[in-house]
Design goal:
By secondary structure, the protein is an alpha/beta fold. It has one domain: TIM Barrel. The strands form two sheets. Strands 9-8-5-4-3-2-1-10 form an eight-stranded parallel sheet. The chain has a two-stranded antiparallel sheet with strand order 6-7. Strand 3, helix 3 and strand 4 form a beta-alpha-beta unit. Helix 3 crosses helix 4 and helix 8 packs across helix 9. The longest helix is centred in the middle third of the chain and has 26 residues. It is globular, with a radius of gyration of 18 Å. The protein starts with a strand and ends with a helix.
Length: about 290
């Protein structure tokens, strides 16, 4: 099992090159390339030449890109803007594949109120993910759908959204029915909607579940903090992964954990992430 973490964690303070180098130096054997910036139009030169440069850097450091995250949201409900988003997702797939990533996480469309439009979102997303399959085959990369959540616009409380329940996540993947479209289970997102994480993992099984976003929460906010700093029972998580014989990697998405630390301690925050990730990976193997 490879252990990796996202380059997004320090996106406002480190370049992709600096983040990859810090992740490698911390001990990780893989990294999750964050491509959210493609929609933010910053000064980073996202070209295929840049992808090859990052690949050469990673190869030289002895670390690989195991996973990627496409730009999000995947839709906003505006025809022109959604067409631009779609193009950026396709480019992210090609970019990630050039880096060697085997899976790219692409959020489902969920700009509509889930409580009122669940069926419409289902039809919309099955069509959306099926449309990505030809590009998966072209670039040689799988697309992973992710379980989401929404906020109640009046109260701010977290509510269900697309794939926030195991039965619906399985329904999505089974309806798409392609080896190229798999599931990325966001452990933190499950906790926010009060779903049983162990039960969720068991219902998905290792055929559907092929990628992870690992982070902790307080069951109230999407904290994206380090495991054991929140309230999630990670012993139950690793047991469930072992029990389904999970074949994928352990990828951290602790993107907010280190934001408050000064620059001088950034390298140490990655080292702490590595220590926790290594421990969890070892626990999975222990319970197999």
């Amino acid at each position: 099992m490879k252990i990796s973490t996202s380059t997004y964690a320090m996106c406002n303070r480190l370049s992709q090159e600096e983040a990859i180098r810090a992740i490698a130096e911390a001990g990780f054997n893989a990294f999750d390339i964050s491509l959210e910036r493609l929609q933010k139009k910053d000064n980073t030169p996202y070209t295929m030449d840049y992808a090859r440069e990052l690949r050469a850097l990673a190869d030289g450091l002895g670390i690989e890109c195991n996973q990627a995250h496409a730009p999000f949201p995947s839709s906003v409900g505006d025809t022109q803007k959604d067409a631009e988003i779609y193009k950026s997702i396709i480019f992210a797939m090609e970019f990630a594949a050039a880096l060697g990533a085997k899976i790219i996480v692409v959020h489902p469309k969920h700009h509509l109120c889930y409580a009122e439009c669940a069926d419409e979102l289902f039809e919309m997303n099955v069509e959306f993910y099926k449309s990505l399959i030809p590009y998966c085959k072209k670039f040689g990369i799988k697309v992973a759908c992710e379980n989401m959540w929404q906020s109640n616009k009046k109260t701010g409380a977290v509510t269900d959204s697309t794939c926030s329940r195991a039965w619906e996540f399985c329904k999505y993947l089974d309806a798409i029915d392609s080896e190229w479209i798999v599931g990325c289970l966001d452990i933190g997102h499950i906790s926010l909607v009060n779903a049983d994480i162990s039960d969720f993992i068991h219902k998905m099984g290792n055929k559907r579940l092929q990628a992870l976003h690992v982070h902790d929460t307080d069951y109230v906010r999407d904290l994206h903090t380090l495991p054991f700093l929140g309230k999630i029972d990670f012993n139950a998580v690793v047991k469930a992964l072992a029990e389904i014989d999970y074949k994928g990697d352990l990828t951290f998405e602790t993107t907010l954990y280190a934001r408050s630390f000064p620059d001088e301690l950034l390298a140490d925050t990655f080292k702490m992430e590595y220590a926790v990730a290594k421990y969890l990976a070892e626990q999975v193997e222990k319970y197999r």
